[in-house]
Amino acid sequence: MENVDQIFVNAKKAVIDLIDGFLPPQAVLVVSILISVGVIATVAPVIMMYLTWLERKVVGRIQNRIGPNRVGKFGLLQPIADGVKMLTKEDIVPEGADHLLHFLSPVLVVVPALLVMALLPWGRNMAAMDVEVGLLLFFAITSTGTLSIFVGAWGSRNKFSLLGGLRAVAQLISYEIPQVFSAIVVIMVTGTVSIVKIVEAQPGFNWFVFTPWGFTGLILFYIASVAECNRTPFDLPEAESEIVAGFHTEYSGMKFALFYMAEFLQVFSLSALAATLFLGGWQGMFLPSWAWFFLKTYSLIFIMLWFRGTFPRLRVDQLMGFAWKFLLPMSMINIIVAGIWTYAPPMIAWAAGIAIIVISYTVLTKLNIRFHIDRNRKFILVD
Amino acid sequence: MWGSGVLQGMAVTIKNFFDTYTKKDGIFTVEYPEKCLPAKERFRNFPILVYDEKPEDLRCVACDICAKECPPKCITIVKAKDAQGKPLKQAAVFDIDFTVCMNCGICEETCPFDAIYMDHEFELAEYDRMNELIYKKEDLSKPWNYFEKIRPTDAKEINARRASLPTKPTTPPSQQGS
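ok -> structure tokens follow
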């Protein structure tokens, strides 16, 4: 059990021990870093490729279809066939585009999505980078993705791209606030910003989701994360029925694939972060720690795909209203609940927490229903 | 409660998701090249020439009515001749150009000898456009029991009508239908 749990850690240690004999210590350090980086740089694209496969399968099943099933058993080679297709496609750059920005944007958008993978604890002792301010760094890195999306939208010199870019900036900035606010509760209770220490604070099955503030926090964080990844029902920046393809209208071939890759990596990393903060990360029993991590992450990703198969797209005003009028006040109230949880005795904390959340949810939803001046007014067409 | 509609919608989609695994009619895709839906009896595709016993003795007498009636003119018929040059009641050449044929079924309707019928076969793709899709007499010949198998209702009706006709093969039977 212990061996299976630490299999990847031990494998890396074996390699380090092997080269330790004939290389100087500095070189061993470099090799150690390169191994971690190499593993992440290899695993991340594979994860992305099979997320596209998973998405098409799940959405297909929801729509009573089979999904990809031609290339390989169960269509398992479909992502590779798509990759080959993407690589061989012509790379078109519009004449009026800013060539540097147009090229830079898909490169820049993948970098943060890959970087945050290093911060995630994939299992016990399996964080590539145990940073003391990990959570802060995570949010800081993911928020730079907005800039590169806007760079691409501006550099394309296309009105649809620009509209998509504007929408992306408005949406991503709005949803970042409730996202970070709903993650603050975890920092308040654990008293640390290190992602590894946050996981260690939830031993066994004592996950934060089994507390009133954790449950609310998970839902708020998760909804905000869906919006952060530009996924349905919040996919306004690339709304294909309104503005062609939004910010990546003018991208083709591998550049387009890079945007796709960034989106799916963000889906993975934000689901993994939600699992880490509220569902105990790699904590659990019976299974190896990395299996628990992937189980939780993929369950959350499945919910995202389920969302995509269910909901139609929101309108822009609905999107903004949802962030500012519901998610933001709710996440602030959740901070109060977490404060009470920290200082009050457990019984009172449970009762007060549930009461505050239920009451504020009811009040907020009542306030959010649009106020009608004259409910009996009849709308008649002009004679 | 606010938000319950969202959960209702999600319940519908997840039910459909699991139905595709548990229920037999949850998924109604037929994976075509491996499996195929049975063709409907009244489905019609390209024509075939039927024979009763031997492939050489087609019912067709090369009367040229179908070739004249054919709207896109895809049928080519040349009468066979005996040693003296006297035309026989059989076709030497009977070609149908499937690149031109539009599956209208007028040949079947006009044939007074019950010789040409529409088939169910539709997997006729070829690599060569010019030669492979011009079907010769030999390619078009199918036995009558094949027709009875693919279109039993029509075959029963036609058999009954043919049985009531005088057995003398030289007199042409009356026009079928009205």
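The interface with chain B takes residues 58, 61-66, 69, 306-307, 309-311, 361, 365-366, 368-369 of chain A (CB under 8 Å).
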